[in-house]
From TrEMBL:
<dbReference type="InterPro" id="IPR013538">
    <property type="entry name" value="ASHA1/2-like_C"/>
</dbReference>
<feature type="domain" description="Activator of Hsp90 ATPase homologue 1/2-like C-terminal">
    <location>
        <begin position="12"/>
        <end position="140"/>
    </location>
</feature>
<dbReference type="InterPro" id="IPR023393">
    <property type="entry name" value="START-like_dom_sf"/>
</dbReference>
<comment type="similarity">
    <text>Belongs to the AHA1 family.</text>
</comment>
<protein>
    <recommendedName>
        <fullName>Activator of Hsp90 ATPase homologue 1/2-like C-terminal domain-containing protein</fullName>
    </recommendedName>
</protein>
<dbReference type="Pfam" id="PF08327">
    <property type="entry name" value="AHSA1"/>
</dbReference>
């Protein structure tokens, strides 16, 4: 098992940053790595329950991920399970993601914890994907 932790600072309030990581309409604007669009989803991390997204890259490949929102604690944190689907739409190994928001002197910090990944390779792949997605979130505040 491997874990991944990323942190980013944003020039905004905790409450506004929390909205960007929980509200489906805002979340949809930065969800998925750069160069990928999301033609189908049920992204709503403002309530507990199931979620999914289908991402499509420029070559037309699709990638489905789904899980269950396990907790919502505005404006502090939201947690959810995460599992990729294979070509037969079967869910693979499940991991857990927590987005935490902390007030800072100049705004708010997002702490992304992705735990229980299968191995170091999975952690490295998720690091690239989350880093790219967070760049899209940062652009919302640019």
């Amino acid at each position: 098992m491997a874990d991944l932790k990323l942190e980013r600072e944003f020039p905004t309030t905790r409450e506004n940053l929390f909205a960007w990581i929980s509200d489906g309409a805002k979340l949809f604007q930065w969800w998925g790595p750069e160069g990928v669009h999301v033609p189908e989803h049920d992204l709503n991390f403002s309530r507990t329950g199931p979620w999914y997204s289908i991402m499509k890259n420029a070559e037309g490949q699709t990638f489905k991920v789904s899980g269950h929102v396990t907790h919502v604690d505005p404006p502090n944190s939201v947690g959810f399970t995460w599992a990729w689907h294979d070509d037969q739409d079967q869910r693979g190994p499940e991991s857990h993601v927590t987005f935490s928001v902390v007030a800072t002197e100049n705004g708010a910090r997002l702490v992304l914890d992705h735990r229980e990944l299968a191995d170091a390779e999975a952690a490295a792949n998720h690091n690239m994907g989350w880093t790219s997605s967070l760049a899209k979130l940062e652009a919302q505040f640019g």
